[in-house]
Amino acid sequence: MKTISELYAAKEVENSKTYPVLVTVGIATCGLAAGAGPVIDKLKELASGNADVCVKQVGCIGICQHEPICEVYVNGERFTYVKMNAEKAARVYEQHILGGRPVEEFMLTEKGEPVQNLMGTTFMKLQKRVAMRNCGIIDPESIDEYIGRDGYRALAKVLTEMTPDGVIQQVLDSGLRGRGGGGFPTGLKWRFACSNRGQVKKYVCCNADEGDPGAFMDRSVLEGDPHSVIEAMAIAAYAIGSDEGYIYVRAEYPTAIKRLTIAIEQAHRYGLLGENIFGTGFNFDVKLRFGAGAFVCGEETALMTSIEGNRGEPRPRPPFPAVKGLFARPTILNNVETYANIAQIILQGADWYQSLQCPGCAAGTKVFALTGKITNTGLVEIPMGTTLRTIIEDIGGGVPNGKKFKAAQTGGPSGGCIPASLIDTPIDYDNLAKIGSIIGSGGLIVMDEDTCMVDMARFFLDFTVDESCGKCAPCRIGTHRLLEILDRIIAGNGTLEDLDKLEELATYVKSASLCGLGQTAPNPVISTLVRFRDEYVAHVVDKKCPAGVCKNLLRYRILEDKCKGCTACARKCPVGAISGTVKNPHKIDTSKCIKCGVCMATCKFGAIVKE
Question: Domains in the chain, please, with CATH?
Fold first, then answer.
């Protein structure tokens, strides 16, 4: 066990380590998938034996479409290289690290000009990083680097300077609300569970079962800064009087699991988990539990049921988990991002955290996974109250290929679609609730003019139908009926009466389902019916899909005045639906056409249109 002074002596040692050149490579799931492994291997090979160069791994840097990313720190300057491979890495090493000449052609560009480092881009300038403050900076497998960034100082502070009630009050005063979707005040949840300290067994749980399509915020924090979650759980345990915690992480996150396992072992070795932490008599330990990918286990009672070794199904509430949770004991459950804010709130204070948001909005920052039809995909952490326009046009770089922004889906399958007319909406819990959406865990999917909103609603509903645990009839049966109606509409067999049925059934499923999955499953349907009703009407009355997405409502046609009779489309058609002679206009037999789009993609003259 290390004393507080011994622990922070490690910080001084870490800060005293300087290298003329530091090279970092983003080794998280996104980087590894893009080929970061060979990049860091090549750099380590070239730097072996060179005492002036340190090559290390870091977590996700955030601008994911540019992976693999390598950053060079030399002479007090930072240089960001993107879309790297082993050959490019070798050139950076030879030309920049050894030769002192930066390789501009491998750098980020903005408005056609190279940008020296990521921090100089609009993508980063408009962000404020709290939960992700260490991601892309430290080696996530080094506890000393975490300590070197004030890691575990908040835990030391609460154990030696604060009472448990004082900790809860500071979290309450900060205004931190749960970042997992519900937005419940974190301090209030802790206060509900704090009675009978030392007399009743209690648990602290972390929800790392991130299941929204397109969401990867929690995974990136676990892969880039796992100790921030462990430290926060220990602080929460002290506040409510717990000595045991569980992190429920999905098994599909092998890199996150590896780094959590290493972090827990390191924390034990340093005396930061286990018995008599910092010599204060406080005991706390953390265990990992792996989820099998069931979306419903993101619901707190289903998650706890799964930890207990049973099928993950929600329980009726009340009693709430703060009274009767894991193993029928008082339990608090927060998600990864919520915990990632705790240490900074303790160190910087509640007023500091309140100051981060835009005026009149919820406190703090929010991490979003920005995906879909957007130029800059990746993770963005922005002050609460930042407008959707700022996120999409400034940070995200706008919709590519000259297309128009149509809508954004926030909250994943549980959220709603925000139309272009509401692009200036400030993003926080209450503002989104007013327009029929939610923040959720932080997925933000951007859609352009080529997106069919009926098909989008069907996509999310199909997901929730598959993920329903089946325990309650409104969700088990009602979502199936909603999906059947949407299938009819997309197939061209819908009627105006179906739209009335959708609204009625969606309202019933929302009000009668047992847990949050069923209660929010109709949200994409309801929001698109309200905001894009004209598209539903076009599908059922005109039998047309305005976006040209729904296959059964499509027809491909060859324009005679543009067709050159080159026969390329006929030769590529997989079902022989195109006929015609050389140098004469061709025709498509609609009875044979399977609407695969190969002909349109093949034609070089723009002679084939989709109607």
Answer: 4-121 (3.40.30.10), 143-351 (3.40.50.11540), 365-448 (3.10.20.600), 453-542 (1.20.1440.230), 555-610 (3.30.70.20)
